[in-house]
Amino acid sequence: MQPTVTLSHRGEQRLLGGHPWIYRSDVADASASAGDIVVVRNAKGRVLGSAFFSDRSQIAVRMLTHGEQVANEAVIASRIDAAIAFRESLAIDATAYRLVHGEADLLPALVVDRYGDYLVVQALTQGMDRLTPVIVRALEDRLRPKGILARNDPKTRALEGLPQEVTLLQGEVPEAVSVREGNVEYDVDLRHGQKTGLFLDQRENREAAARYARGRVLDCFSYNGGFAMTLAPMAQETIAFDISEDAIARVRANALRNGVTVDARVGNVFDELRGLDRLKERFDTIVLDPPAFAKSKTAVEKAVSGYKEINLRALKLLNPGGFLVTCSCSYNISEGLFAQIVHEAALDAGAHVTVVEKRMQGRDHPVMLGVPETYYLKCFILRKVG
Ligand code: SAH
To answer: Which of 38, 45, 171, 228 is positioned for an S-S bond with 240, CB 3.0–4.6 A?
Structure first.
């Protein structure tokens, strides 16, 4: 018997609404085991499609196909091919970028990032985890990488009852991998770096910010200095802050490597922005790229005040005519809400602010219409008129 899941009426309605996730409470019946590809039926027994099944997560079903088409290994491999072909068509001026962005590539819970000759894979559900050999084969056939690493250490794997681990899947992966983004070079630690090594989703926003950067530049929440490195050639002076000593050590090493001068300092941005204001320091370009303050719906209220605080402080520190590049990577904070927060910050700062660009994650991290979870990064480039 083929593994089968039967949806409740509400589950079916949700599926018809275009969202690929069905919650456990909307599953009427399941005869399937962890990570199976299942046939999905409605209460009357009609086949709705096929999907991954999880016996642990609240997201019990992740749709793969609709109607009679059955998902199998060949479907997964051809979707990987299509995802790679799309990235190749973008003519990205970098050697590091995302090849597969989960649901938006019809490959739920799968991430594949390219760092030059090396690939990093994240399989975040039981179904994708089980298909890892298929994924590795498809990537090898298509790209012939020197090494493939599984960065299966995100916490979300625990929700699936899967171990958090980093394992070598194929070939070899050195301690430091050199990559290039535009004119900037980085050494990346694929095993221990945040995310899969770099914040690839900000690449196009760094490029965009470079179009406006000038004067004194302040990069807040810098990580390894992606914004600072890209903007420094346009600046008279560049200061970067991060709370992590390791990140700041990387900013210094990257600055040296790229021949730019960055004053990299360990510090808590909330305190540092206040300190800079006390010292009456002023800047012409400020970047705010904090970690996700709202990781869950319940955290939204506190997150709103966090975002407002840093935007208010930054707008005060900005000279008239200066630019603020402000980001939120919390998908629980919608674009509309983020715009409202920044507006309130501007009012409190007594600043007149125009929107120069409204941006999001790079094109290699596409957003799927109807799946808000795939639209997480918002980036506004603002100008303080006066
Ligand atoms: N701008 C970076 C990515 C930033 S990720 C890029 O383009 O690559 C967020 C960073 O914020 C992390 O490096 C984390 O160490 C840092 N961070 C978190 N809380 C902080 C705080 N309160 N003050 C300063 N840095 C903080």
So the answer is: 228
Sheet of 47-53: strand order equals 21-23, 59-66, 47-53, 37-41, 4-7, 27-31
For the stretch 225-263, pLDDT in tens is 999 999 999 999 999 999 999 999 999 999 999 999 999
Task: Give the residue, by CA position, lying nearest to ligand 1 atom 11.
Answer: 221
* Best mutation site among 238, 242, 286, 293 for ligand 1 pocket (most ligand atoms within 8 Å of CB): 242
CATH 3.30.750.80 assigned to domain 73-177? The reply is yes
Q: Which of 242, 155, 147 is nearest to 190 (CA)?
A: 147
Which of 217, 243, 295, 327 best tests ligand 1's pocket when mutated (most atoms within 8 Å of CB)?
Answer: 243
Q: How close is the Cα of 337 to the center of ligand 1, in Å?
A: 21
What would the pLDDT profile of 296-313 be if each residue is shown by its tens digit? 888 899 999 999 999 999
Total count of residues recorded for the chain: 386
The per-type count for the chain, helices as H runs and strands as E runs, is 11, 20
Q: What is the fold of 199-384?
A: Rossmann fold (3.40.50)
Which pTM value belongs to this model? 0.96
Which ligand 1 atom sits closest to the C-alpha of 221? 11
**Sequence-ordered list of residues with C-beta below 8 angstroms from that of 126, at least 6 positions apart, any chain:** 34, 35, 52, 53, 54, 55, 56, 57, 160, 161, 162
Q: What's the fold here for domain 4-66?
A: 2.30.130
CA of 223 to the centre of ligand 1 (A): 5
Q: Is 329 a catalytic residue?
A: yes
